[in-house]
Amino acid sequence: MTRKMLRRDQAKSHPYPMKKNKIDPRHLGRNVDKFSSKNNLVDIELGDYHGADAAMDEKEQYHQKKHIRDMPTSIAMKKVIRDRLMANKVSTVTGWAGWKYRRKLAYNKFKISAREFFGYFEVWGSSFKKIEGHFGSGILSFFTFLKWLFFLNIYLAVIVFTFVTLPQVIFNTQSAYFTGNSSNLDTAIALANNCSEQYTVNITTDWRYLILDFLQGTGWMEKTVLFMGNYTTTSLYIGSFDAVSYSYNMPLAYLCVVGAYLGLSLLMLMHHTGKGLRESMVNSEDKYFQHCNKVFGGWDFTLMDDNAAELRHKSLHFEITADLREERDAHRRQNRSGCKRFGLGLLRVFINLFVLAVLGGSGYLIYYVQVKVTELTQGLDYNTYGTFIQLLIQFTPSTTITLLNVIVPFMFEKVVGGEDYSPMFEVQITLVRVVFLKLASLAVLIATIYIEVTCATKDTCNVGISPCPSIECWETYVGQQIYKLVIMDMIVVTFTTLLIEFPRKLIVSKCSCGLSERIGFQKFVITQNVLDLVYSQTLCWLGGFFSPLIPALYVIKYFIYFYLKKASLLVNMEPPDRPYRASKSNSFFMVILMIAFGLICLPVGWCITKLTPSKGCGPFRIYSYMIDVIPLAISTWPTWLQEGLKFISSAGFTIPAFIILLIVIYYYHALASARKEMVKLMKEQLALEGRDKQFLLQQIKDGDEDGKAAEQKVTVTKETNKSVVSATEVRLRKVQSPPGVPLDSDF
User: Where does the UniProt annotation place the signal sequence (predicted)?
Assistant: First the structure.
C-alpha cells in the first residue's frame, strides 16, 4: 500500500505528464516509475516513445525544450528526451505569430551574445575568480567592496568634473555676481572685492618648495581647481544667442553638485545595502540544508577550463570549511560550564573598558597634536625652520591619525581573540571598534579645525587676529588638511605593501631561523582592510566638498590599491585560519559604510547652513551663509512656481504628507508581518512534508527487508522439503530393492 501511495504522489508532481505548461505525453511518451529494491532508491526510466506521428509546430517544440532543461533529472536522460523530441515532424509557424516568434528568438540570441561580449570586458573578473579560488568568497567580498567603491567614485568624479571643474576651466570670462532679486548685497560685494585683493599666496620657483607645496596643498596648489577657495563667486559668461546672454551660476552649481553626489551616494548605498541584507536573510535560511546545497548544488557544470574548475573546487572547499568550523565553535560555546561563562563575561568587561580607554586616549592625542601644530605654524619662528622640518610639522596631525589607525586596530585584533566570539561576530565587533576609532579620530580633527575656524577675534574679511590663528580662506584650509590625510593614506598603503609585506614573505620563505618561524606568513585581516576602505571613502565624501577633485584622486588610488592588494594577497599571504562567510560580510560592510556616510553629512550640512564663508575666496564669499544662494535662485523663478514651493514647504502640506507616509509605512509593516507569518507556516509545512517522505521511505525500506526475509524463509522451507523428500525416497528404495542390488540401480 505504501508503494502505491508513493507512486501516486510522484505522478502528481512529475514534470513529464502534460498539464498546463508541461511536456505533452504525445511527444515524449509515458514514463514508467520503477522502484529499485536493491538500492532502496527510485529510478525514473523513460518508457517507449509513442509520439512519432504526433504533429507539433516549432514554437511548441521551443517551449518544450525549455521545460526539458528545467527537469530535475540527469543530463543523459535530458539528452534522450531531447533527441526523441527533435525526431518529431515540426511544422513552421507562419503569419503574425511566426514573425513574433522569430523576433523573440532573435532578441534572446542577441541578449545572450551581448552578455557574453560584455562579460569579456568585466573589470577585474578574472582576478576575482582567482582570488575566490585561492582564498574563498569571504576574502573576495573585500575586493568586491573595493570594486563597488571604485565605480562609485567614478560616478562622483564625473559629476563634479562635468558641472563644476570643467565650467571653471572653460568659461574664463566672468559676468556679474549672482544676487537674484535682492538689492542688499552691494556692501557684501564691495567687501568681497576688497578681501579678494588682500588674499595672496606665496608662490616660489624653488623645486624643493614646489614638491613641498604639492604634498601639502599649499603655494601654487592653493591656486588650482583642486580647492574650493579658487572657484569664482561670479556667474560665468557662456555666450549669447538672439541678443540674449547666457551665464553659468557657479555658486548654485557648486551647491547643487554637492547635493547631487551626496544624494547619488545615498541611493547607491541604500540599493546595495538592501540587496545585501536580502541576500543575507535568504542565505540565513540555508542553515537547515546548507551542506546539501554546497555539496550537491554548488558545482558549476559549465566550467570547461581546468584552472577554473580547480579554483571553483577550492572556493567550495573554503565555504564548507567555514560552515563546519562555525558549527563546531557554536557547539563548543554551548557546552561551556557556568564558571567558564562567568570568567569569560568578566574578561569581556575588562577588554571593553580597555577599548574605551584606548579610544579616549587616541582622541585626546589627536586634539593635542593639532593644537600644537597650529601654534607652531602661526608662530614667528616657523619661517626659520628648514623645508624638511616644515614638512614634518605640517604632516604631524595626519601622521598621528594614520599611525593610530595602524597600531590601534592591531591591538583590537589581538584582544578580541580572548573574548571567544564566533568568527562572524568577531569580525563585526572588531569592525565596530575600529570604526569608532577612525571616525572618532576624524571627528576630533574636524572639531579642532572648527574651533580654529570659529574663533571670535576676526577682522572684517573673516580672518583671525591674534590670539586666533590667521586663516585667510578656511574652506581651502580644511581642504588642505583632508588632502594631506589622503596623501598620507596613499603613502602608508604603498609603503606597507612594498616595504613590509614583501620583505616579510622573503624572510619567512628564505630564512629557516627561529625568528622567521615565529613571525610566520601573514594572514589577510579582512576587518583592517575593510576599515581602511571605509576610512578612505569617508575622507572622499568629506573632502569632496572642500576639494572637488578628491573623488578623482580616489579613483586613481583605488585602481592602484586593487593591484597592490591582489599582488600582496596572492604572493605574500596565506588563507586565514578562520574563514569568513561572504554573504554576511558584504551586508555588514555596507551598513558600516552607511553609518560613516550619515556621520559625514553632519559637518557638511553644518558648514553649508551655519558657518560664515570666507570673504576673500570661494564661490560663496558675498553671502552670509552658503545656503543663501538657494533662496536667491528661487526668487528668480516664476511667481506660480514660488507659491507652489512655498505651499509644499508649509505645514498644510507637510502634516498630511507625514500622516499619509505613516499610513503607508503601517500598511507595508502589516504586509511584511503577514508574509513573515506565511513563511513561518510554509516552513512548518515543509518540515512536515520532509518527515512524511522520510516515513514513506522507511516503510519502503522495511517492506523490502520483510520481502527479503520472506523469500529467504520460503527458500529454507523449499530446501527442507527437498531434503525430506530425498530421505523418504531413499528409505523406500531400501525397502523395495532385492538383496544384493544397489539402491541406485534400475531393477
Answer: none
